[in-house]
Structure formats: C-alpha cells, structure tokens
Amino acid sequence: MDAPVIKKKLGLKDRYAAMTRGLAWDTTYQPMEKVFPFDQYEGIKIHDWDKWEDPFRLTMDAYWKYQGEKEKKLYAVIEAFAQNNGQLGISDARYVNALKLFIQGVTPLEYYAHRGFAHVGRHFTGAGARVAAQMQSIDELRHFQTETHALSHYNKYFNGLHQPTQWFDRVWYLSVPKSFFEDALSGGPFEFLTAVSFSFEYVLTNLLFVPFMSGAAHNGDMSTVTFGFSAQSDESRHMTLGIECIKFMLEQDPANVPIVQRWIDKWFWRGYRLLTLVAMMQDYMLPKRVMSWKESWEMYVEENGGALFRDLARYGIREPKGWKEACEGKDHISHQAWNTFYNYGAAAPFHTWIPKEDELQWLSEKYPDTFDKYYRPRFEYLREEQKAGRRIYSKTLPMLCNTCQIPLLFTEPGDPTKICHRETEYKGDKYHFCSDGCKDVFEHEPEKYVQSWLPVQQIYQGHCFKPGVDPTAEGFDPLLAVLDWYGMNVGRDNFDFEGSEDQKNFAAWRGDPVPGATAAADQGAQP
C-alpha cells in the first residue's frame, strides 16, 4: 500500500499569500475596472498588484489572537483604574482639560479613519492592499472604542466630556480636525492612504501618541497611557502600510511621482496645521511635562522624517513644501495657539489659564530664543489684567483660514511680530488663508474648498442657533445662543479653570484646601 503523504506546512509568506491573494479572483460578469473603479480615476498607474508587500504578513486568525490578548490587558488596567478611583491620583485637575481636548478632537478621528479604511478596503483592485486596509479599519474602530471607554471614567466626575460627538460636528475649533479627515475621505483611495497612512500615521503620529502618552504617565493617568500604548502597537503596522503604499506607487510607474509629490506636499502641511492642537496640549495642558513640542518636533519629524525623505529621494521625492516653515514654527505655534484659546476660552468646553511662574520658567528654558522675547510679556500682561478683575474673554469672531479652518493666528515666516495673511480670488469671491501652504492647497482644487463649512461664516448666516431663536430680540446675546446650540453648559464646561467646580471637587477628594483666596491671588481667577 502507498505510504501516507504528509502535507508540508506552509511557511509564513506562503500562508499569507494563500489567505490574501489566494482568496481573490477576477470578475467575469462585469469587467474588473467597473467593479473596482475608484483606484484609477486619480491618475495613478498600477501595472502589477502582486508587487504589493505587507512586511507583517498578518492573517486574520493571528490578528484576532494578538488583539484579543491586548484587549484583556488593556481592560484589566482600565477596570483597576476605575475601581481604585484613579482620577484622584492624577497630578492636578488641570490635566483633565487635556483629556477633554483629546476626546473632543482626536477620538472622533479614529472613527473617521475606520470609515475611510473600510471604504478603501472595498475599492482597491489588489487583494493584498484590501486586506491591509480592512485590518486597519478594524484597528481604528477598536481605538475609538477603547479611548471612549477609558475616558468615560472621567466623565463621571468632570464636566466637558459628556457629548464630544455633537461638539465635533458643531464647535468652532473642532472644525479643524473634522475638515482634515473629511478632506481625506472625499479624496480617492490612493490620496486617502497618502493623507492618513503616510503623512499622518508615518510622518506625524508619533508626535501625538508617544510624547503625550508619556505625559499621561507622568501625570498619574495610567488608564490613558495604557490605551495610548495599546494603540501605538497598532500604529507600527499602520506606519508600515503608509510607507508601503508610497513606495508601491512610486515603483509602479514614473508618472506616479509628481502626483504623489503633490499629495505629500498637501498632506504634510494639512497634518502640521492639525497638530497645532497637540502642540498646545503638550506645552500648556500637562501639569507635569515630559518634553516640549519643540523637542518632540526635532526628534520625531526633523530627525526621523528627514531620514525618511532622504531615503525617498531615490524615487524622485523631495521634502514637502513648507518643511522649512514648519521647522521654524516649532518655536511659536504652541504659544500662539494657547494665547488664542485663552482669549476665546468662553467659547470652548474646557478651561484655559495663565501658566504659573515655574511653568513660565520651564517654557523659557525650552524656548530660549523666542519665549521670553515674544510670549512671556504677553502672558504676564494677561495675568495682571486677570488679577485686576479684567480677565479677557473675547466675544468677537476671528477670520478663519479657508483651508485648515484655524483662525489667522500664525505669524509670518521670519517675523513673529506680524500675523500671516494670504488671500486669493475665485469666481469673484475672496478667500483668506493663514499661510502660503494653505493657499497653495486651495488653489490646486478650489472647487473643493469653496464648499468648506466655516464656523464663523455659519454663525453670521444664522445657522448656529436653535430653532425659534430671535436674534432681533432685545438683550439677545449671540455668544450664549451659539453655546446653547453647541450644547455647552455655560460656566461649567468652560470659563476660567482655577476656582471651577472641577477644581473644588478635585481638591475636596484629595483633602487639599479648596481653591479660593490663594488661587485667586496666584492666578487672578474668578471664584
């Protein structure tokens, strides 16, 4: 009788090929270009989808195993944090404001990314790219869920975390991250991967997940740092997808190079502008700081990103436009953003404050060439005004950049004393921008950006009031009407930090003196 044939176990590469390429087929009832039309209209030419390589070669069964193990560890820490009243162990109640900004401005982006990768995972012709995008889509949904779950513990004790989804759709400064992802989602599949997987995940994401999560650990927030590092382990695969996508496009056809370069220029600048919020969080919203925004930029962008673009030079790719301006801006953007939020603190669902003297000194040390010269005098003046009972709450509406949707708060390259303003005309209308980078993005595809939902214009047009509100009524306060439409509890979700209900509750839990005369003397705060 014949000897039994022992089937040879497939190696990792062959098993991955069988579980991805081996499951694909060419359509017969309809041509392939009709079934997968989206990956062709951008002008990207792909000659051989089998050249797509996934260095992780992760199959779905292995994926569920790894993610399941991570979930057990993550939720064990989150539950332990909650059962032991971990919120009492954080360094200072001011730290919670960073979490408010995170759940308002970052967590919804995870869901947007989930939707985007699910769409891309359907519309790539190549099976390998589809599988990689589908796995990332699941990752992003997991990140949204774990971040929401971890931060929901703080919602039991602090204001300003209760309806981030509604705020993401309505609040003025949250139109910045929202517009970034809606811009990416409304592009083609290759542009989406360039925007999110390459420019944001590969080049810029470390600025958020590494320094900020380290800051969470230094401030006693083990719940947040655990979900951050759990997500960061997924980011390594996401970054690989980003660089693989770029190299794949560049290697397939020389005609792809100028298209990819234009996308890199656009999305580097858009990502840089978006991270202004992160710069502010890192320098001003962590009571115990790990490193400055400037140090993070030098480490994760100038060193790592610079090496990346030197590597891509062999494909004909140069550093993105605006690289030098962004590297110059590392000395300025966090201070300019915090000053703006301090002035418009009445319209934001988190607290803003003047840094204490030791914090101003830390900023002076980290920004020796710029902080004392340009920003310390401004904060000292605002502190004196606050002590005198004239705490500034601006009720005006600022001009917004039509591309990034940030107020025109940034300064001219080379001149930190002059606000940067650019404008262009399209079909008889004028449009305004915060920089040459945003102006360039607009002028390449103006039909897209003339449709932008700009909060200031929407308020002026009366679209940000609840039904039945009469702006002509005597004593009408447009700011309060807009905040009511936002769903913000005036005086609880915003206004000055020291002496707020959050601070009083936090002090009582810890057994500290309740902020009152001492805090008011130190900070000039409202009781």
Report on the structure:
With 527 residues, this protein is mostly helical. The protein has a single domain, classed as Orthogonal Bundle (Ribonucleotide Reductase, subunit A). 58% of the residues lie in helices and 3% in strands. The chain has helices spanning 12-19, 32-35, 60-83, 95-105, 107-123, 127-155, 164-170, 175-185, 189-204, 206-209, 211-218, 222-252, 256-274, 276-284, 293-312, 323-329, 333-343, 357-366, 371-387, 436-444, 446-449, 455-460, 478-486, 501-510, 517-523, and strands spanning 411-412, 415-419, 422-426, 429-433. The strands form two sheets. It has a two-stranded antiparallel sheet. A two-stranded antiparallel ribbon has the order 3-4. Helix 11 (211-218) packs antiparallel against helix 12 (222-252). The radius of gyration is 25 Å and the shape is globular.
